[in-house]
Amino acid sequence: MIIVPVKEGENIDRALKKLKRKYEKTGVVKELRERQKFTKPSVKRRGELIKARYIQKLKDQQFS
User: Fold this and answer.
1) pLDDT for position 13
2) Burial class (CB in 10 A: 0-12, 13-18, 19+), 19
């Protein structure tokens, strides 16, 4: 459970912003979205390879 300490007199909007930031850092929302549908391991692996190729291409262009 994520706890956000709110100081007395602090704006509620600021506390909500802190809560959203903590949720993003922990990856809760991302994990929930992933669990909504099943993805085969082979499809996950293919996506990882495509992403790795893309990142490698960007790095090669940067150093060229």
Assistant:
1) 92
2) middle
pLDDT digits (tens, 9 = 90+) for 16-33: 999 889 888 888 888 889
> Amino acid identity of 21?
R
6: which residues sit within 8 A by CB, 6+ positions away? 12, 15
- CA–CA dist 24, 39 (Å, integer): 22
Rounded to 5°, the CA angle 6-8-14 comes to 45
User: What is the model's pLDDT at position 57?
Assistant: 96
C-alpha 43/C-alpha 38 separation (Å) is 10
**Domain boundaries of the chain, sorted by first residue:** 12-63
Q: What's the predicted TM-score (pTM) here?
A: 0.53
Spatial contact of 26 and 2, defined as CB atoms under 8 Å apart: yes
